[in-house]
Each structure stands twice: as C-alpha cells, then as structure tokens.
Amino acid sequence: MIVDSVLTNAKAYLKGEIVDCSIAIEEGKIQKIGKETHMPKADQIIDINHKLVLPGVIDSHVHLRDEDKAYKETFVTGTAAAAVGGVTTVLDMPNNSPVTMSSETLHNRMEIAARRVLVNVGFYSEFPTSAEKIGAIVEEGAVGFKLFMAEQVGGLNVDDDQAILESFTQVGKLGVPVAVHAEDHSLLKFAVENFKLRNRHDLAAYLKAHDENAELAAVERIIDIVGKAENSRVHFCHVSTQKSLSALAEAKKSGKAVTVEVTPHHLMLKKDDYGSLGVSALTMPPLRSQENVDALWKGIEAGDVDTVGSDHAPHTVQEKDASSIWDVKAGVSGVETILPLMLTSVHKNMLTLAHALELLCEKPAEIFGLAEKGRLEQGKSADLVVVDFNQKFKIDASKFKSKAKFSPFDKWDVQGKPVMTFVGGKLVMDEGEIVAKAGSGTVIRRTLP
Ligand code: DOR
Ligand code: ZN
Ligand code: ZN
User: Fold this and answer.
1) How far is CA 63 from the centre of its chain?
2) Other C-beta atoms within 10 Å of 324: how many?
3) 47 with 61, same domain?
4) What is the pLDDT along the chain (449 residues), one digit of tens a residue?
5) Whether residue 100 is found in the same domain as residue 208
6) Cβ neighbours of residue 236 under 8 Å, at least 6 residues apart?
7) Nearest ligand for residue 61 CA
C-alpha cells in the first residue's frame, strides 16, 4: 500500500513517554505510528528532524467573528492565527452579527466558513427564544450551545431560571453540551448602573462590578439548574476564582455533569498587571488577585480543571481605547499563544506535558464529542502540530496572523514553538507561514449519537 505521506524522524509523546517514531498518514487519518522500517511506502516523505509531534490543540473557546464583525477578525485571519499557534480545531462562539441562534444563521455561517477556514471549525449556537427550535439547530450540526449570562445575547432571558431550565432539559435530551459564561446579569447591571450614576468610568469600578460574587452567583444558579435538567452537561468557560472553582469541584463530587475551562490569561496574569498592561488587557471576567491565580493552578494540579481554552476575542485597537471603561471592548487575542504559553508552563514544571495535552487536546475532544480527535493514535485524524519544544522565542503581537495584533503576553519570553501544523494530514503552517489555501479546513458538524 502507498499512503499519502509519512513523517519521518519524529518524536512523539506516546503512552507517557517521548519515543522516536514515524507517522504514516492516509486520507487525513493517522494510518500507523511506528519504527521507520515498519512504514509503508508514501507519496510524500516529510522529515520532522527529531522535533516533537503532538496532537493539534482543540481550542473550544474562540470568537472567529467574520460576517458583520469581519473588521475585527475573519474566518481566514482567525484560523490562520490558530494554525500558526498549533491549534487544529477551534469551536466558534455565537456572539456574532448576526448572532448564531437559529438553524438558518448557523447554516449560513457554516457555508461561509467552509470556503474560508484553514483548520477544523465547529460552531456553538446561542439559545433560541423557544426551546422548540433547539432540535433544528442540533440537526444543523452545532457542536454545543452557549449561554452568555452577563447580558442577553441569544433568545433566552438570562434572568429567567425557569426558561434556562427548559432549554437545558431540551439539550440534555439531545445529548449536546452547553458552554456557559458565568457572570450574573442582574448583579452586573445593578452595579454598572450605580457606578455610572456616580460618574465612575474607571477600571476599579469595572473590577468591582465584575467581582467574584458576580461570577459565583451565576455559577451557583447554573449548578442548581444542571441538577434539575436531566442529562444536561455544562462546560463553565473561563472560570477565574477560587470560589467558583471550589463550588464546581463540589458539584462534580455530587455527580453533576459540569466541567471547567480556564484561560491562559487568568492563569498567567493577575489584577496588578493592569498597571503595566493598561485596559487593552481588559477581559470578561477580568484578571483576578494572585490568590485566585494560585487557586486555578491548584485546581489544575487537583484535576478540578478540565480544559484550557484561549477565549480568543479579537477587537480593534480603537475599540480597546475608549475614554469610559464601560465602552472598552473586553477580550484579547489568544489562539496564537495558547500552546507556547502552556508549553512554557511545562518547562517551568507547573504541569507535566501529559497533563497539558489532556487539558488542550484530550478533554476538549471528549467534552464536545470529537471522538476522532485529541490523541495521537492510529485511526484518529491527522491533526498534528510539530513543536520545537526547547526553542525559546519572544511573543511578537505585531506579527500575529489575527487582525487583533495586541496581546497581554506581547514581548514575553516563551519556550516551545509550533513549527508545522497539519490539519487532516495536510500541511497548513510551515515555520510560521500559512502554506494552504483558505477553505482547506473543515466545518465540523456534530453527529447525533
Ligand atoms: O473578554 C471577553 N470577550 N469575554 C467575553 O465573554 C466576550 C468576549 C468577546 O466576544 O469579545
Ligand atoms: Zn465569556
Ligand atoms: Zn468568549
């Protein structure tokens, strides 16, 4: 048999150790991993030069924008950024224009994306106004639903727990996970209105409005609803405090189907960093105290954190620079830096490489039903990133492929550089450059079990 390609002189992390091997790829899948002498003949031999081959990162929290928000990011620029960062699959958030919240908006978005994306892309939908319409969205292939609780983005009244329960019950029946941005709308609204009345437009006011209690209140509401909505599963996005994390760890212990995402910015930056970074580092939820940062790392160590996602949320420089803090758009570019930052944490012994791969690849695949992805194994998709594990380099946001060429990690020294990215066996990124055509990526449609 002649396969499509063989990657030779590779090192791969297999069953707990780094081994020298070759990888045969056929029709987008890993056909064989083994000794070079055991490889089939191939149309193409690619010499990996003893670098490390890892499963491509699955970033389950990316805002690709495009459509009417293309001025911030497009499917091309966002997925080019992903490929450069060693991310082979992204799950796209629905707060777009138009909002992804119906089978029509989802269908349309998938069609546009299919012509432009460079990596695999799955799509979340916001909840429609009526739970009856959930079925059609699932049929269209949404990988999950998103509930943004800080304000109403989709059709659900985010203050109405009964309506949320009905929708969660419906997605529970269909076996589709929900991702939740947990910040309580009514608490936030009350605090923001009060600050505005008092003519407070500063960062301290923002941090107070978006404090730990706003997050915890929403986390507790949703934990309660998950307990009532049969078979519902909720992935909590960007958990940022010790309190939320311990509430979620408790909920897990009591058998509730909840999982936890943390972001690199909440793991590696703290509130005090706003002093040097300024409001361009503003995110929702915001950066927290050092105690909370420490708690997130403890949560990783204890196994209470399931995934690391970037919350790649591109905006223009102008949008990050408003005179009132309430007008500053929250969010940072992140898909290009998530893997080097996590590999740097591995070098610093904050976690093992195996654990980083679990958080970045295996668990996201498991939670979002991407059975063919997340691991380097025979039969899985050939979504691979080759990293120069020991290479040190400086993050340079001005060189990002994302339109949002700024980062709180700009100028950081990191170690572990993605040098090649393969998506479905096809080389998409080589030495930092995109070598595939827009549209060569795949739109992922969730198939019902
Ligand atoms: O920082 C954020 N930016 N947090 C969110 O939840 C939304 C996101 C965005 O879309 O810009
Ligand atoms: Zn969010
Ligand atoms: Zn987000």
Assistant:
1) 9
2) 13
3) no
4) 899 999 999 999 888 889 999 999 999 999 999 999 999 999 999 999 999 999 999 999 999 999 999 999 999 999 999 999 999 999 999 999 999 999 999 999 999 999 999 999 999 999 999 999 999 999 999 999 999 999 999 999 999 999 999 999 999 999 999 999 999 999 999 999 999 999 999 999 999 999 999 999 999 999 999 999 999 999 999 999 999 999 999 999 999 999 999 999 999 999 999 999 999 999 999 999 999 999 999 999 999 999 999 999 999 999 999 999 999 999 999 999 999 999 999 999 999 999 999 999 999 999 999 999 999 999 999 999 999 999 999 999 999 999 999 999 999 999 999 999 999 999 999 999 999 999 999 999 998 66
5) yes
6) 179, 180, 182, 219, 222, 244, 248, 258, 259, 260, 261
7) 3
Residue 373 lies in a domain: no
**Which of 367, 400, 418 marks a domain boundary?**
367
**Is residue 442 included in any domain, yes or no?**
no
Number of domains in the chain: 2
Cα 177 → chain centroid: 15
Amino acid identity, position 348: K
Q: Tell me the CA–centroid distance for residue 176 and ligand 1, in Å.
A: 22
pTM exceeds 0.85 for this model: yes
Q: Collapsing DSSP states into helix, strand and coil, what is residue 229?
A: coil
**62 CA distance to ligand 3 middle (Å):** 6
Q: Whose CA is nearest to atom 6 of ligand 1?
A: 284
Residue 447 is assigned to a structural domain of this protein: no
Residues in the ligand 1 pocket, defined by CB under 6 Å: 63, 95, 181, 283-284, 313, 330-331
